[in-house]
Specification:
mainly beta, 9-stranded mixed beta sheet, globular
């Protein structure tokens, strides 16, 4: 079963809007374990057999424009199940859900090798704002997070510089045993949909969105347990974001493709 989202409202003010798939280098990046510049890890497979340890989702970006006065990054992600409603194991933030304390954030780059970390040596702070169902499709979850520094400590961004944005830390608690949350093994697609690089003036903002259709994934897409991103596009319609996200439990079957090719060859 596949699911496509509708619209998500979010106020936007910007002087530049960039689609991450429309440009060869600048745009949004998403990877498991470490910054994408250190080698994107597109899929994470977890045996779902322990309650210890954590999984790291690392968000980064490359700005099309050079700016030396950025003071914050506002981020939007989308999560979609490849099998229907979002499983209990992924209900990880909101009070009253199965694992409300299983999602936190950090401004530490897990590898800190090939990504610039603007939060180092600054009085930076970060927070997850919410993780809520899409109002038009309850099978989709929208996650919003923010990281910022004081106006007196701006940081620089620009082409050729992959910049670390935030690390989302997912704990493995309540996976097995008494009180376990169901369906850790369910395939999930995750997309880094939009980032607003906030300028110190509050008006000279740069917005980047995940372009599409990105069939099979892309630099702003990762998967969990072998899911397949059949399409992911985020755009702007007036004052709102909108997204189309299609997730399948697995990718195209190469055996079927080969069989079809063999059948066609018989009629040449």
């Amino acid at each position: 079963m596949r699911h496509a989202t509708a619209r998500v409202s979010a106020a936007l003010t910007a002087t530049l809007i960039v689609s991450s798939s429309a440009l060869a280098a600048p745009g949004l990046r998403l990877s498991w374990d470490h910054c994408s510049a250190d080698g994107q890890v597109e899929n994470k497979t977890f045996a779902c057999d322990v309650n210890t340890g954590t999984e790291a989702l690392v968000l980064s970006y490359e700005s099309l424009l050079s700016r030396s006065d950025r003071v914050g990054v506002e981020m939007t992600l989308h999560l979609v199940s490849g099998l229907g409603p979002m499983p209990a194991w992924w209900q990880v933030f909101t009070a009253g859900t199965c694992r409300p304390a299983a999602l936190t954030c950090s401004l530490l780059d897990p590898l800190a090798a090939n990504c610039s970390n603007p939060w180092d040596s600054r009085n930076a702070a970060a927070a997850i704002a919410d993780l809520v169902p899409d109002p038009f499709d309850p099978n989709v979850r929208r996650l919003r997070a923010i990281a910022a520094v004081p106006a007196s400590e701006p940081f620089a961004v620009g082409p050729g510089i992959e910049t670390f944005a935030i690390q989302l830390v997912i704990r493995n608690n309540a996976t097995v045993g008494t009180g376990a949350c169901a369906a850790c093994v369910s395939p999930i697609c995750i997309g880094f949909g939009a980032a607003k690089l906030v300028g110190s003036s509050g008006t000279d903002n740069v917005i980047m969105t995940a372009g599409g259709p990105n069939a099979g994934g892309g630099p702003a897409n990762v998967t969990w347990q072998g899911a397949y991103t059949a399409g992911y596009t985020v755009g702007i319609d007036g004052p709102s974001y909108y997204e189309q996200f299609v997730c399948a439990p697995s990718g195209p079957d190469p055996v079927h493709a080969s069989t079809w090719g063999a059948v066609k060859a018989l009629y040449r």
